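I had to read the description of the data format several times before I understood it. For illustration, here is how one protein appears when written out as sequence plus structure tokens:
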Amino acid sequence: MRRLLLWCALGSAACASSTKAPETGPSTSRTVQVGGMPGKLTVTSQSRANVTNMAFTVDEVWKVLPLVLDSLGVKASSIDPAQHSIGAENFKVRVQLGRTPLSRYLECGGTQVGANADSYEVILNIVTQVQPVATGGSRLSTLFEAMAKPIAFSQGYSKCSTTGLFESRLVDAVKKRLQG
């Protein structure tokens, strides 16, 4: 089901016409009981794929994409050459991704001590897909989702939001490798 939601989000992102515009994917919701209190809380969230048009062909971008993800600290767990899709699903990280503190990539709330992303257990779902565009270039769509929970307390995962930095670093690294 999660994979279907990711593909739907990427599919809707493929329809973007601007150079760089996040697209809103399907909504997901869950109902939770809050600390034994009467009533329930329904949490609804939307996935956003970051979409960037590139002046490079699908094959050129696809060839460097695994290297770029690896340089950013992402260990790819799913690769689909037919769909030009690569990603990491249920990828657990703590403190940093590669050499970058997680709080630079994620907003998971915070305390007086600091950003939660830097001390919580974080599960990432990252899917990047390259598609051709009519102008001869390509479209790079990246879905970057995260959930986090405290290490020291018995608490469930909470959804985090992206700051957009990971997605922009990915695009910049692809361009740099192809232009260099």
